[in-house]
Amino acid sequence: MRKALVAFLTLPLLALGAQPAVAHGHGHGKTLRAAAPRDLRIGSAVAGGGHHVDQPYPDPFTYDRPYRKVLAREFNSVSPENQMKWEFIHPERNRYNFGPADAIVRFARANGQVVRGHTLLWHSQNPAWLNEGTFTKAELRSILKSHIFTVVGHYRGQIQQWDVANEIFNENGEYRQENIFIAELGPGIVADAFRWAHQADPKAQLFLNDYGVEWPGVKVDAYESLAKQLLAQRVPLHGFASQAHLSMRYGAPDQLAGVLQRFDDLGLHTAITELDVRMDLPASGVPTAEQLTTQASYYKTVLDACLAVDGCNSFTIWGFTDKYSWVPVFFPSEGAATIMWDDFAKKPAYYTLRDTLRAARR
Ligand code: 9MR
Protein backbone atom coordinates (compact mmCIF):
# COMPACT_ATOMS: atom_id res chain seq x y z
CA MET A 1 0.00 0.00 0.00
CA ARG A 2 1.69 3.19 -1.10
CA LYS A 3 -0.22 5.96 0.64
CA ALA A 4 1.20 8.90 -1.32
CA LEU A 5 0.32 7.23 -4.58
CA VAL A 6 -3.23 6.56 -3.39
CA ALA A 7 -3.75 10.23 -2.55
CA PHE A 8 -2.32 11.29 -5.89
CA LEU A 9 -4.53 8.94 -7.88
CA THR A 10 -7.76 9.51 -6.01
CA LEU A 11 -8.64 12.96 -7.35
CA PRO A 12 -8.37 12.34 -11.08
CA LEU A 13 -10.20 9.04 -10.70
CA LEU A 14 -13.07 10.70 -8.89
CA ALA A 15 -13.19 13.49 -11.45
CA LEU A 16 -13.55 10.95 -14.22
CA GLY A 17 -16.18 9.05 -12.27
CA ALA A 18 -14.00 6.01 -12.82
CA GLN A 19 -14.49 4.19 -9.54
CA PRO A 20 -14.95 0.54 -10.43
CA ALA A 21 -16.71 -0.09 -7.12
CA VAL A 22 -19.48 2.32 -8.07
CA ALA A 23 -19.81 0.76 -11.50
CA HIS A 24 -20.51 -2.51 -9.72
CA GLY A 25 -23.27 -0.95 -7.65
CA HIS A 26 -21.59 -1.25 -4.29
CA GLY A 27 -19.89 2.05 -3.66
CA HIS A 28 -19.47 3.95 -0.40
CA GLY A 29 -17.43 1.19 1.18
CA LYS A 30 -20.40 -1.12 1.75
CA THR A 31 -18.45 -4.17 0.66
CA LEU A 32 -14.90 -5.29 1.32
CA ARG A 33 -13.79 -4.51 -2.22
CA ALA A 34 -15.39 -1.07 -2.18
CA ALA A 35 -13.89 -0.25 1.21
CA ALA A 36 -10.35 -1.25 0.23
CA PRO A 37 -7.55 1.09 -0.78
CA ARG A 38 -7.20 1.05 -4.55
CA ASP A 39 -3.79 -0.60 -4.58
CA LEU A 40 -4.88 -3.54 -2.42
CA ARG A 41 -6.83 -6.45 -3.87
CA ILE A 42 -9.25 -8.25 -1.56
CA GLY A 43 -9.68 -11.88 -2.48
CA SER A 44 -11.28 -15.18 -1.62
CA ALA A 45 -10.63 -18.78 -2.55
CA VAL A 46 -13.26 -20.11 -4.97
CA ALA A 47 -14.74 -23.28 -3.49
CA GLY A 48 -14.57 -26.42 -5.62
CA GLY A 49 -12.59 -29.66 -6.02
CA GLY A 50 -10.37 -30.92 -3.17
CA HIS A 51 -12.25 -31.70 0.04
CA HIS A 52 -15.53 -30.50 -1.49
CA VAL A 53 -15.71 -33.58 -3.69
CA ASP A 54 -16.50 -35.79 -0.64
CA GLN A 55 -19.04 -33.41 0.91
CA PRO A 56 -22.81 -33.78 0.66
CA TYR A 57 -23.28 -30.83 -1.69
CA PRO A 58 -22.64 -30.22 -5.38
CA ASP A 59 -19.65 -28.19 -6.57
CA PRO A 60 -20.13 -24.84 -4.81
CA PHE A 61 -18.88 -22.44 -7.47
CA THR A 62 -20.84 -24.21 -10.21
CA TYR A 63 -24.15 -24.72 -8.44
CA ASP A 64 -24.54 -22.22 -5.57
CA ARG A 65 -25.82 -18.98 -7.12
CA PRO A 66 -26.18 -17.05 -3.86
CA TYR A 67 -22.56 -18.02 -3.11
CA ARG A 68 -21.43 -16.62 -6.46
CA LYS A 69 -23.33 -13.39 -5.81
CA VAL A 70 -21.47 -12.78 -2.57
CA LEU A 71 -18.17 -13.73 -4.23
CA ALA A 72 -18.76 -11.15 -6.96
CA ARG A 73 -20.01 -8.44 -4.63
CA GLU A 74 -17.41 -8.59 -1.87
CA PHE A 75 -14.13 -9.41 -3.63
CA ASN A 76 -11.98 -8.06 -6.43
CA SER A 77 -9.59 -11.00 -6.53
CA VAL A 78 -10.28 -14.74 -6.68
CA SER A 79 -8.06 -17.80 -6.15
CA PRO A 80 -9.18 -21.20 -7.48
CA GLU A 81 -9.09 -23.31 -4.30
CA ASN A 82 -8.21 -26.52 -6.17
CA GLN A 83 -9.14 -26.03 -9.82
CA MET A 84 -5.64 -25.10 -11.05
CA LYS A 85 -3.78 -27.73 -9.03
CA TRP A 86 -2.01 -30.50 -10.97
CA GLU A 87 -4.41 -33.33 -10.06
CA PHE A 88 -7.33 -31.24 -11.20
CA ILE A 89 -6.04 -29.43 -14.28
CA HIS A 90 -3.65 -32.15 -15.54
CA PRO A 91 -5.36 -35.44 -14.63
CA GLU A 92 -3.60 -37.57 -17.24
CA ARG A 93 -0.18 -37.19 -18.75
CA ASN A 94 -1.54 -36.11 -22.10
CA ARG A 95 -4.79 -34.48 -21.02
CA TYR A 96 -5.53 -31.13 -19.44
CA ASN A 97 -8.86 -30.21 -17.86
CA PHE A 98 -9.19 -26.45 -18.17
CA GLY A 99 -12.97 -26.15 -18.03
CA PRO A 100 -13.52 -25.45 -14.31
CA ALA A 101 -10.61 -23.00 -14.04
CA ASP A 102 -11.69 -21.29 -17.28
CA ALA A 103 -15.13 -20.73 -15.71
CA ILE A 104 -13.52 -18.98 -12.75
CA VAL A 105 -11.35 -16.80 -14.99
CA ARG A 106 -14.43 -15.82 -17.06
CA PHE A 107 -16.37 -15.03 -13.88
CA ALA A 108 -13.49 -12.88 -12.65
CA ARG A 109 -13.35 -10.90 -15.87
CA ALA A 110 -17.11 -10.34 -15.84
CA ASN A 111 -16.94 -9.05 -12.28
CA GLY A 112 -13.87 -6.83 -12.46
CA GLN A 113 -11.72 -9.26 -10.47
CA VAL A 114 -8.13 -10.38 -10.85
CA VAL A 115 -7.08 -14.01 -10.43
CA ARG A 116 -4.34 -15.57 -8.29
CA GLY A 117 -3.12 -18.77 -9.93
CA HIS A 118 -2.48 -21.63 -7.47
CA THR A 119 -0.13 -23.52 -7.89
CA LEU A 120 2.69 -24.87 -10.15
CA LEU A 121 5.34 -26.59 -8.01
CA TRP A 122 3.99 -28.37 -4.93
CA HIS A 123 4.40 -31.70 -3.13
CA SER A 124 0.66 -32.26 -2.68
CA GLN A 125 -2.40 -32.86 -4.87
CA ASN A 126 -0.36 -34.20 -7.75
CA PRO A 127 -2.01 -36.74 -10.07
CA ALA A 128 -1.37 -40.48 -9.67
CA TRP A 129 0.27 -40.67 -13.11
CA LEU A 130 2.95 -38.29 -11.80
CA ASN A 131 3.31 -39.67 -8.25
CA GLU A 132 3.40 -43.29 -9.31
CA GLY A 133 5.10 -43.06 -12.68
CA THR A 134 8.77 -43.86 -13.23
CA PHE A 135 10.57 -41.13 -15.07
CA THR A 136 14.17 -40.28 -15.80
CA LYS A 137 15.37 -36.93 -14.49
CA ALA A 138 15.24 -35.50 -18.00
CA GLU A 139 11.64 -36.66 -18.41
CA LEU A 140 10.58 -35.22 -15.05
CA ARG A 141 12.14 -31.89 -15.92
CA SER A 142 10.39 -31.78 -19.25
CA ILE A 143 7.07 -32.78 -17.61
CA LEU A 144 7.32 -29.81 -15.25
CA LYS A 145 8.43 -27.46 -18.00
CA SER A 146 5.64 -28.38 -20.35
CA HIS A 147 3.05 -28.24 -17.53
CA ILE A 148 4.14 -24.71 -16.65
CA PHE A 149 4.24 -23.55 -20.27
CA THR A 150 0.85 -25.11 -20.99
CA VAL A 151 -1.03 -23.91 -17.90
CA VAL A 152 0.57 -20.48 -17.49
CA GLY A 153 0.41 -19.98 -21.27
CA HIS A 154 -3.28 -20.92 -21.35
CA TYR A 155 -4.04 -18.07 -18.92
CA ARG A 156 -1.44 -15.63 -20.25
CA GLY A 157 -2.46 -12.06 -19.49
CA GLN A 158 -5.31 -13.13 -17.19
CA ILE A 159 -3.49 -13.94 -13.96
CA GLN A 160 -2.31 -11.18 -11.63
CA GLN A 161 -0.17 -13.42 -9.43
CA TRP A 162 0.96 -17.04 -9.65
CA ASP A 163 1.96 -19.09 -6.61
CA VAL A 164 4.82 -20.65 -8.54
CA ALA A 165 6.43 -22.50 -5.63
CA ASN A 166 4.14 -23.64 -2.82
CA GLU A 167 5.31 -24.95 0.56
CA ILE A 168 8.81 -25.91 -0.62
CA PHE A 169 10.42 -25.73 2.85
CA ASN A 170 9.61 -27.85 5.91
CA GLU A 171 9.43 -26.52 9.46
CA ASN A 172 13.23 -26.77 9.81
CA GLY A 173 13.77 -24.58 6.78
CA GLU A 174 14.96 -27.53 4.66
CA TYR A 175 13.72 -28.28 1.17
CA ARG A 176 10.79 -30.69 1.37
CA GLN A 177 11.80 -34.04 0.03
CA GLU A 178 8.10 -34.96 -0.52
CA ASN A 179 8.26 -32.61 -3.48
CA ILE A 180 9.25 -35.04 -6.21
CA PHE A 181 10.68 -32.36 -8.46
CA ILE A 182 12.94 -31.04 -5.72
CA ALA A 183 13.86 -34.55 -4.52
CA GLU A 184 14.73 -35.79 -8.00
CA LEU A 185 16.08 -32.68 -9.67
CA GLY A 186 17.49 -30.72 -6.72
CA PRO A 187 16.49 -27.26 -5.44
CA GLY A 188 17.74 -25.55 -8.61
CA ILE A 189 14.43 -26.58 -10.18
CA VAL A 190 12.74 -23.79 -8.20
CA ALA A 191 14.60 -21.14 -10.21
CA ASP A 192 13.72 -22.93 -13.44
CA ALA A 193 10.02 -22.97 -12.51
CA PHE A 194 10.10 -19.20 -12.07
CA ARG A 195 11.96 -18.70 -15.36
CA TRP A 196 9.50 -20.87 -17.29
CA ALA A 197 6.46 -19.19 -15.73
CA HIS A 198 7.86 -15.78 -16.62
CA GLN A 199 8.48 -16.81 -20.22
CA ALA A 200 4.94 -18.15 -20.47
CA ASP A 201 3.35 -14.99 -19.00
CA PRO A 202 5.74 -12.05 -18.64
CA LYS A 203 3.12 -9.86 -16.91
CA ALA A 204 2.16 -12.20 -14.06
CA GLN A 205 3.72 -11.52 -10.66
CA LEU A 206 5.47 -14.69 -9.54
CA PHE A 207 5.33 -15.68 -5.86
CA LEU A 208 6.78 -17.97 -3.23
CA ASN A 209 3.89 -19.06 -0.96
CA ASP A 210 3.82 -20.93 2.35
CA TYR A 211 2.19 -21.41 5.74
CA GLY A 212 4.03 -21.22 9.04
CA VAL A 213 5.80 -18.03 7.99
CA GLU A 214 3.67 -15.69 10.07
CA TRP A 215 6.30 -15.48 12.81
CA PRO A 216 10.06 -15.05 12.38
CA GLY A 217 12.04 -18.27 12.52
CA VAL A 218 14.10 -20.71 10.48
CA LYS A 219 11.43 -21.11 7.82
CA VAL A 220 11.25 -17.36 7.19
CA ASP A 221 15.07 -17.25 7.21
CA ALA A 222 15.12 -19.97 4.55
CA TYR A 223 12.73 -17.98 2.35
CA GLU A 224 14.69 -14.80 2.83
CA SER A 225 17.94 -16.40 1.78
CA LEU A 226 16.29 -18.16 -1.16
CA ALA A 227 14.72 -14.85 -2.26
CA LYS A 228 18.10 -13.09 -2.06
CA GLN A 229 19.77 -15.87 -3.98
CA LEU A 230 17.10 -15.89 -6.72
CA LEU A 231 17.22 -12.12 -7.08
CA ALA A 232 21.02 -12.18 -7.25
CA GLN A 233 20.71 -14.70 -10.10
CA ARG A 234 18.16 -12.43 -11.81
CA VAL A 235 15.46 -15.06 -11.54
CA PRO A 236 12.02 -13.46 -12.11
CA LEU A 237 10.76 -13.63 -8.52
CA HIS A 238 8.25 -10.88 -7.68
CA GLY A 239 6.68 -11.74 -4.38
CA PHE A 240 6.56 -13.59 -1.09
CA ALA A 241 3.25 -14.66 0.42
CA SER A 242 2.11 -15.79 3.83
CA GLN A 243 -0.88 -18.14 3.63
CA ALA A 244 -1.89 -17.32 7.22
CA HIS A 245 -3.92 -20.38 8.20
CA LEU A 246 -4.28 -19.43 11.85
CA SER A 247 -5.64 -21.18 14.91
CA MET A 248 -6.73 -19.35 18.05
CA ARG A 249 -4.73 -21.98 19.95
CA TYR A 250 -1.48 -20.29 18.98
CA GLY A 251 -2.05 -16.56 19.41
CA ALA A 252 -2.32 -13.71 16.92
CA PRO A 253 0.59 -13.20 14.49
CA ASP A 254 1.78 -9.94 16.01
CA GLN A 255 5.15 -10.02 14.23
CA LEU A 256 3.78 -10.53 10.73
CA ALA A 257 4.36 -6.95 9.55
CA GLY A 258 8.04 -7.35 10.44
CA VAL A 259 8.26 -10.59 8.47
CA LEU A 260 6.62 -9.05 5.39
CA GLN A 261 8.84 -5.99 5.68
CA ARG A 262 11.97 -8.15 5.31
CA PHE A 263 10.75 -9.20 1.84
CA ASP A 264 9.54 -5.69 0.99
CA ASP A 265 13.08 -4.54 1.76
CA LEU A 266 14.31 -6.87 -0.99
CA GLY A 267 12.03 -5.06 -3.44
CA LEU A 268 9.41 -7.83 -3.52
CA HIS A 269 5.66 -7.61 -3.37
CA THR A 270 4.09 -9.37 -0.43
CA ALA A 271 0.62 -10.88 -0.03
CA ILE A 272 -1.67 -12.69 2.35
CA THR A 273 -3.04 -15.58 0.33
CA GLU A 274 -5.11 -18.03 2.41
CA LEU A 275 -6.17 -16.38 5.65
CA ASP A 276 -8.56 -18.14 7.99
CA VAL A 277 -8.80 -18.26 11.78
CA ARG A 278 -10.04 -21.51 13.28
CA MET A 279 -11.10 -22.07 16.87
CA ASP A 280 -12.00 -24.91 19.21
CA LEU A 281 -15.75 -25.18 19.09
CA PRO A 282 -17.80 -25.51 22.28
CA ALA A 283 -20.01 -28.62 22.63
CA SER A 284 -22.90 -26.65 21.13
CA GLY A 285 -20.86 -26.21 17.97
CA VAL A 286 -21.57 -22.47 18.15
CA PRO A 287 -18.71 -20.08 18.93
CA THR A 288 -19.14 -17.76 21.93
CA ALA A 289 -19.34 -13.99 21.50
CA GLU A 290 -15.90 -13.76 23.07
CA GLN A 291 -14.43 -16.23 20.58
CA LEU A 292 -15.88 -14.23 17.71
CA THR A 293 -14.34 -11.04 19.07
CA THR A 294 -10.96 -12.71 19.39
CA GLN A 295 -11.27 -14.10 15.89
CA ALA A 296 -12.04 -10.63 14.53
CA SER A 297 -8.92 -9.29 16.24
CA TYR A 298 -6.77 -11.97 14.55
CA TYR A 299 -8.18 -11.07 11.15
CA LYS A 300 -7.41 -7.43 11.89
CA THR A 301 -3.84 -8.20 12.97
CA VAL A 302 -3.18 -9.82 9.60
CA LEU A 303 -4.84 -7.05 7.59
CA ASP A 304 -2.97 -4.39 9.60
CA ALA A 305 0.31 -6.16 8.82
CA CYS A 306 -0.43 -6.02 5.09
CA LEU A 307 -1.54 -2.39 5.29
CA ALA A 308 1.66 -1.46 7.12
CA VAL A 309 3.91 -2.75 4.33
CA ASP A 310 4.21 -0.72 1.11
CA GLY A 311 4.31 -3.56 -1.40
CA CYS A 312 1.59 -5.76 0.16
CA ASN A 313 -0.88 -5.67 -2.71
CA SER A 314 -3.17 -8.68 -2.18
CA PHE A 315 -5.15 -9.86 0.84
CA THR A 316 -6.99 -13.13 0.32
CA ILE A 317 -9.08 -15.22 2.68
CA TRP A 318 -9.40 -18.98 2.15
CA GLY A 319 -13.13 -18.97 1.56
CA PHE A 320 -15.63 -16.50 3.01
CA THR A 321 -18.26 -18.86 4.43
CA ASP A 322 -18.06 -21.67 6.99
CA LYS A 323 -20.42 -23.62 4.73
CA TYR A 324 -17.51 -24.59 2.47
CA SER A 325 -14.44 -24.22 4.69
CA TRP A 326 -11.74 -26.89 4.58
CA VAL A 327 -11.14 -26.47 8.33
CA PRO A 328 -13.68 -28.83 9.96
CA VAL A 329 -12.79 -31.51 7.41
CA PHE A 330 -9.09 -31.39 8.34
CA PHE A 331 -9.37 -30.35 12.05
CA PRO A 332 -12.47 -32.13 13.39
CA SER A 333 -12.76 -30.27 16.72
CA GLU A 334 -12.12 -26.85 15.20
CA GLY A 335 -14.16 -24.71 12.85
CA ALA A 336 -16.01 -21.43 12.31
CA ALA A 337 -12.81 -20.16 10.66
CA THR A 338 -14.23 -17.78 8.06
CA ILE A 339 -15.91 -14.37 8.16
CA MET A 340 -19.47 -15.49 7.34
CA TRP A 341 -21.85 -18.13 8.68
CA ASP A 342 -23.28 -20.90 6.51
CA ASP A 343 -26.10 -18.60 5.33
CA PHE A 344 -23.59 -15.82 4.47
CA ALA A 345 -24.62 -13.71 7.46
CA LYS A 346 -21.61 -11.64 8.51
CA LYS A 347 -19.54 -12.30 11.62
CA PRO A 348 -17.74 -9.63 13.65
CA ALA A 349 -14.56 -10.44 11.66
CA TYR A 350 -16.27 -9.26 8.46
CA TYR A 351 -17.17 -5.88 9.95
CA THR A 352 -13.73 -5.46 11.50
CA LEU A 353 -12.06 -6.06 8.14
CA ARG A 354 -14.41 -3.63 6.40
CA ASP A 355 -13.90 -0.91 8.99
CA THR A 356 -10.14 -1.36 8.88
CA LEU A 357 -10.12 -1.14 5.08
CA ARG A 358 -12.31 1.97 5.11
CA ALA A 359 -10.02 3.69 7.59
CA ALA A 360 -6.98 2.84 5.45
CA ARG A 361 -8.63 4.13 2.27
CA ARG A 362 -9.09 7.65 3.55
O1 9MR B 1 -8.73 -25.88 0.63
C1 9MR B 1 -8.07 -26.92 -0.03
C2 9MR B 1 -8.86 -28.21 0.14
O2 9MR B 1 -10.08 -28.14 -0.58
C3 9MR B 1 -8.03 -29.40 -0.30
O3 9MR B 1 -8.74 -30.58 -0.01
C4 9MR B 1 -6.69 -29.37 0.39
C5 9MR B 1 -5.81 -30.55 0.01
O4 9MR B 1 -4.49 -30.37 0.38
O5 9MR B 1 -6.01 -28.16 0.05
C6 9MR B 1 -6.68 -27.05 0.55
O6 9MR B 1 -5.95 -25.86 0.24
C7 9MR B 1 -4.61 -25.77 0.70
C8 9MR B 1 -3.85 -24.87 -0.26
O7 9MR B 1 -3.96 -25.35 -1.56
C9 9MR B 1 -2.40 -24.76 0.13
N1 9MR B 1 -2.24 -24.33 1.49
C10 9MR B 1 -3.01 -25.06 2.50
C11 9MR B 1 -4.49 -25.11 2.08
C12 9MR B 1 -5.33 -25.77 3.16
O8 9MR B 1 -4.97 -27.12 3.29
UniProtKB/TrEMBL annotation:
GO molecular function: endo-1,4-beta-xylanase activity
Enzyme class per UniProt: hydrolase
Signal peptide coordinates: 1-23
GO biological process, one term: xylan catabolic process
InterPro entries for the chain: GH, GH10, GH10_dom
Domain GH10: 62-356
Catalytic activity: Endohydrolysis of (1->4)-beta-D-xylosidic linkages in xylans
Listed PROSITE patterns: GH10_2 (PS51760)
Enzyme Commission number, as recorded: 3.2.1.8
Keywords, comma-separated and alphabetical: Carbohydrate metabolism, Glycosidase, Hydrolase, Polysaccharide degradation, Signal, Xylan degradation
Domain of life where this protein originates: Bacteria
Listed SUPFAM superfamilies: (Trans)glycosidases
UniProt key word Hydrolase: yes
Family membership: Belongs to the glycosyl hydrolase 10 (cellulase F) family.
PANTHER family listed in its UniProt record: BETA-XYLANASE, GLYCOSYL HYDROLASE
Identification of the protein by name: Beta-xylanase
Source organism (scientific name): Paractinoplanes atraurantiacus
